[in-house]
Amino acid sequence: MDATAFLSILATSIATFFAMCNPFANTPIFMGMTAGDDKDTKKAVARRATIFAFAVAVVMAASGKLIGELFGVTLPAFKLGAGILVFVIGYHMVMGKAHGAQSASEEEIEKSKESELEKAISPLGTPILAGGGTISAAVTFSATDGMEGLAAVIVGFGMIMVMTYFFFLSGDTIEKKLGTAGLVALTKIMGLILLTIGIQIFLGGLDGVMNQYIPTIPALLSGSGSG
User: Fold this and answer.
1) Does residue 155 contact residue 141 with C-beta atoms inside 8 Å?
2) How far apart (Å, rounded) are the C-alpha atoms in residues 64 and 48?
3) pTM for the complete prediction?
4) 93-119 burial string, b = 16+ CB within 10 Å, else e?
């Protein structure tokens, strides 16, 4: 494994997943959902949510390429779709709108209150932490860069989940330090980063399409002409 190449992929992985999961923005959601819970229950919910989200991302990153082959989805096509999805999520964050791929609906949150620990799986574990954007990014990393990409997902997303765990447990302090305006500003910055990453993924898919399909056009035209 090329250490320099891996560090580059890992840096992109950390930036992507941090912007996707945005511990600052998700901490108030955690606080609202665990309001009234004792300290031990909050720890249990935070621990289960981050572990479950990590497991979902790693499993999808490891099996995503196989799933793509099973359904006949090429890597360039997947990159194009993932790029659009990541772009839309980033755009909504910049514009101050909630996005369905990474946020839970009010109905989901209400249902989750029926059991204090079930909320760790849904909606906290997924779709808030490991939503469509996170999964798409994880699969893209592993499909594009092989074992280095998978390792970057494991290490990068793992670091973000550890960070998120401690953010959840320090929610009151963080909210007091940043304030509502600070959280909004940080979310917009993360959205801008995510938006540009989505464009980069899309351009990678577009490049793959051009290299994979455009060279075959002359042969196809020649074949149709001879027929």
Assistant:
1) no
2) 23
3) 0.70
4) bbeeeebebbbbeeeebeebeeebeeb
Single-letter amino acid code for the residue at 79: K
Residue 204: how many other CB atoms lie within 10 Å: 18
What is the predicted pLDDT for the residue at 108? 55
Q: Is it the case that residue 48 has pLDDT exceeding 60?
A: yes
Residue at token pair 């959840």: 168
Give the domain extent around 75: 3-226
If one compares 194 and 21, the residue with the highest pLDDT of the two is 21
Contact 123, 134 (CB under 8 A): no
| Rounded Cα gap, residues 3 and 152, in angstroms | 11
CA-based nearest residue to 27, from 54, 40, 46, 9 = 46
Rounded to an integer, the average pLDDT of 197-222 is 76
* Overall domain count for the chain: 1
